[in-house]
Amino acid sequence: MKPNNLTGVVFFVAVFFITAISVAQEQPQQDGQIVFVSNRDGNSEIYVMNSDGSGVKRLTDDEESDLSPQWSPDGGKIVFVSGRDGNPEIYAMDADGSNVKRLTVYPGEDNTPSWSPDGSKIVFISDRDGNSEIYVMDADGSNIKRITKEKDYDGEPSWSADGQKIAFVSTRKFFRCCGLYTMNPQGAKLKLITQTPHDSGTFLLGPDWSQDGTRIVFNSDKNRQTENDDDIYAINSDGSNELRLTYSPSFDANPSWSSDGKKIIFDSREQAGNSQIYVIDSDGSNQRRISASSDWADWSPSWSPAGQSSLAIDKH
User: Fold this and answer.
1) Model confidence over 233-288: pLDDT tens digits?
2) Position 216 pLDDT exceeds 50
3) How far, in Å, are 40, 207, 208, 240 from residue 158 at the CA level?
4) Residues whose CB is less than 8 angstroms from the CB of residue 1 and which lie 6 or more positions away in sequence, other chains included
5) 155: helix, coil or strand?
6) CA geometry: angle 57, 60, 64, nearest 5 deg
7) What confidence score (pLDDT) does residue 9 get?
């Protein structure tokens, strides 16, 4: 009887650990997951991975490019841009890549979508009225409203976590340069946060709000030493305390905050011929690369809300 009891105990322990390992591989990490674009399978498709670069899972599979993915606030959906129906339009899908739905129908270009913090609306840019302007629509694609009206470029919108402000980039009032602005969701209460030097020909792009609404991260070539020399910057939402976070000799772009505000993810061509994905602490320290190969490009990362997951399976 004793050998049989011992065998039973060993069997139980083995099953327990196998189950625990399997469940752990499918559980969302504390930092959430990262959705991003990659051309590793031949064209630009959307993938998801764990915050350490493991568990890569492909979500889209179309002969046209799928770009600009952004998580919904509850982590249940991803909005993105695709040319699969002939021109750049905005689509949404479940976080596992299922239930793809086209949200905009326009023969021109709709781009760079960003969710409102309650998930009920999406802000995006469109040239449907003659030039790049910012629009807001309901999350199902209905009730589209234009909220900026300028002859110059308005783009790159990002909604603050409290829902009260939208950060965006504009060339209004500038010559060969641009500014980072905030406004309310109706397009009023415009405020200039920071700008590139006048007549410098430099730009800033990709604003993203910290979860507490106090900081905005963006990329800019305002201090460039060479062509295509963008770096990551962060600034208080009132325009104070601007801090340069990266000093790469190449192109750092598309920054996104972690939900706890402690880390920033971005893509860079530093140390690799193609764009790869890196993480830094919010003060610019502790830079590390998390995407795995220089044989393809990974870019446009977006961090999910903490604890949310589309159950990417660890293949490493």
Assistant:
1) 999 999 999 999 999 887 999 999 999 999 999 999 865 578 999 999 999 999 99
2) yes
3) 28, 6, 6, 19
4) none
5) strand
6) 140
7) 43
CA-CA distance, 124 to 148, in Å (whole number)? 11
Please state the separation of Cα 16 from the chain's center in Å.
Answer: 37
What token pair was written down for 174? 């500038």
Domains along the chain with CATH numbers = 2-303 (2.120.10.30)
| Digit-coded pLDDT (tens) for 6-35 | 445 444 444 444 444 444 344 444 568 999
Supply angle C-alpha 139, 153, 100, rounded to 5.
25
Which tokens go with 172?
């209004």
Distance in angstroms (rounded) separating the CA atoms of residues 107 and 220 = 31
Phi, psi of 42 (to 5 degrees): 110, -30
Planar angle of CA 137, 253, 160, nearest 5 degrees? 40
Say yes or no to pLDDT of 101 above 50.
yes
Residues 184/203, Cβ–Cβ less than 8 Å: no
In whole angstroms, give the CA distance from residue 261 to residue 266: 14
Give me the pLDDT at residue 14, please.
43
One-letter amino acid identity for 91?
Answer: Y
